[in-house]
Amino acid sequence: MAILYDLHPHNPQPRRIEEICDALRKGAIMLYPTDTVYAIGCDLNSKSGVQRVRQLKQLSNDKPLTFLCSSLSNIAEYAAVTDEAYRIMKRVVPGPYTFLLPTTKLVPKLVMSPKRKTTGIRVPDHPICQVILKELGNPIISTSAHLPDEDGEFPTLDLEKAKLFDIFENQVDLIIDNDLEPGFEVSTIVDMTSNPPAIIRQGLGWEELQNWVTVSV
Prior knowledge:
Layout: E1 3-6, H1 14-25, E2 30-32, E3 39-41, H2 47-57, E4 67-68, H3 72-78, H4 83-92, E5 97-102, E6 118-122, H5 127-136, E7 140-141, E8 143-144, H6 161-168, E9 174-177, E10 188-191, E11 198-201, E12 214-215
């Protein structure tokens, strides 16, 4: 049974954040709110946590996992960012965007795409995510708590929060609530390895990028 943490949506209680981060360092996985949808996550550097997330989402090891960084400068520690990519990203972070980027040596192999050596990185515009990132000192895995169907759509996105909690209460270690209703739109994915950069999934806020990138979907 997961431990439920009810956090203030804008000023999360420091003691509870410390407890959450202590558990993440020990390999815990959590269900938590982001600026898009609820996500399943763990400490990027917890091999056992990453493996459990993959098992829960039924993701093979060749599928890269997205993770959250605290800032654009933090992204530069984990990915190679070109000048063009930096200019685009600076306009929209923090926000609901996942950027596909070449990895640095700090990204665990279990997280990246083994063939392309790329990963997806976000800088969330969400107080709870940002406080956890600051206290933990590491990025956190962020994979949607909603499974896509065969057409790539997300039929479970309209689930009420209580139903989502019921589904995961015996599958994760921590559930984080912030007394707000979850979002129902996934992030926009931008491939920064292509020339020019291209939107490969239209999600929340994708229109903001139209002037600077190619829309390939």
